Amino acid sequence: MNLICKQGKASTEAAMHQRAKQLFFTCLCLMMTTAAIAQVEVLPQTPTAPVAQKPIAITTQPLMARIKDIATIEGIRTHKLTGTGIVVGLNATGGDDDLTKFEFAKIYAKENGDVPRDFLTNFRTTITAKNMAMVSITAEMPEFPHPGQKVSGHVAIMDSSTSLQGGTLKHAILRGEDGEVYATVQGKVIVGGFAASGQAASIQSNNVSSGTVANGVTIERVLCQQKVGEAGYVDFHLRNPDRQTAERILNAINKRFPRKAQLLNRASIRVAVPIQQTQTAMELFLNEIQNLTVEPDNTAKIIYNEHSGTIVITSNAKLRPVAITFGSLMISTTETPQASQPNAFSDGETVVLPRTTLTANEDANELRILQQSNSLRDLVDGLNALGVSAREMGNVLINLEKSGALQAELVFE
User: Fold this and answer.
1) What pTM, to 2 d.p., does this model score?
2) Residue ranges per domain, the chain?
């Protein structure tokens, strides 16, 4: 028994010794690994230099335009055609005017031949539906038209009607300035908006009192126009008169056809043409001139529309350095009427006494410097930095022009 106990004790001690030995070697390995890691030299990373972002450069390429896009030929033009008509098929948005009813009664009698006599005499009570409108009709006869050619017309309400939405224009005639009939028109009216209403609310988008009859105008006869170039020359007229542009057109024509063109003024160039050419050859000659390209020039302008707040600035508008300040004055009025009661048992009456409170607030702004602008972007950035609305910008532009700092023509519409 004692021998068995001694053997068990010895085996236990051997196992413990073996485990301690393994734990020692494990700790030794960990210590060596830590020391090796500690001796590793961490190389400093070279800082990456930030990449400089280049400013976006705006390069303005020369704008080349065809002569046909910036000038017109004398004698080649469109002609206005006008007339009146009736639009039917409206959804209770038509008028109740006597003139509208009378015009419809005439059209109805013309289309249907025999109608009762009392229909024309009693049209005010016979026609009661509000599904028609009397409209004015305008169209343009194009250059070199031919009978049967289709163009579009424009219609606008002339009576008390409120909308042309869903309407159709009945057959009508169009006359020229000489009173002669040159075209007829009819077709569906297309409006650029819509309108809807109920008993307590209504909604409308864009204008519904005018519209277009797309390709509804038919040219029936053409005007007798003078033959272009029969006098031996043709005059070109600039849409935007400018001396520099006129000279460039002159040089372009003379380069292609030497000694054919001469400058009349800042808006007109005269081109000599062969007299004995046919009309077709003349049109080919003029078409070749019209397709020549030049770089148009124009004066610096800033166009301001007070109604819509729209501002248009040309690329050559400039601004000299100037100091500017602006502010707004707001006045508010508050009405608080008070009742004044008479004394008890007196014969006085209750009266309402007015009480008005006025409050005025004025912004105190510092002077700001507008730097000199050498490009359109500089000018726009300088004006935007003021932080004013488009309507306030109008007053700023007026004062800049008066001071002489604004190098552009200011045009108000």
Assistant:
1) 0.60
2) 78-219, 233-294, 301-341+350-412
